[in-house]
Design a protein that fits this description.
It contains 5 helices and 2 strands. With 139 residues, the protein is mainly alpha-helical. It has one domain. A two-stranded antiparallel sheet has the order 1-2. Helix 1 packs across helix 3. The radius of gyration is 18 Å and the shape is globular.
């Protein structure tokens, strides 16, 4: 039996700590997280294991290492942030720069973009460690 997707969800939720999600129905949150996870698995193309999900048991086909779980969780964080960034960018297009700055949405957009940048760097760090974990040198 493989790794339950809940293991990845727990890591992801610990990274985002989004209090707004307390107001959303569990089924909607599950759907969002599954979408983020599916997107993260597509991007984790260097994974040495099969990242197929058994949707009946909601587990991965294979048992994942902690590093693989962390890579997927960081990928989920990026996909979680992208709609928030797009929403702020769309708002910027509909209001004047003065109003946008006045509403402090400019600060929010900058913070979200910085968070996404940090998440991408973390993801790259974990992926780099993953790729070279068993590397023994050039022979």
């Amino acid at each position: 039996m493989g790794t339950p997707i809940q293991d990845v969800y727990r890591k992801f939720l610990g990274m985002i700590e989004d209090e707004e999600w307390l107001l959303v129905e569990d089924e909607v949150i599950e759907d969002l997280m599954l979408n983020y996870l599916e997107n993260a698995t597509v991007e984790f193309n260097q994974c040495k294991k099969d990242l197929s999900i058994d949707y009946d048991t909601m587990t991965f086909e294979e048992t994942l290492s902690m590093n693989e779980i962390m890579i997927l969780a960081w990928g989920m964080v990026i996909h979680y942030l992208q709609p928030k960034i797009k929403r702020e960018e769309n708002l910027r297009q509909f209001v004047s720069d003065k109003d946008f700055n006045k509403l402090s949405n400019a600060n929010m957009l900058m913070r979200l973009m910085n968070l996404e940048d940090k998440a991408r760097k973390q993801l790259e760090t974990y992926q780099g460690k993953y790729r070279f974990k068993e590397f023994t040198g050039w022979n």
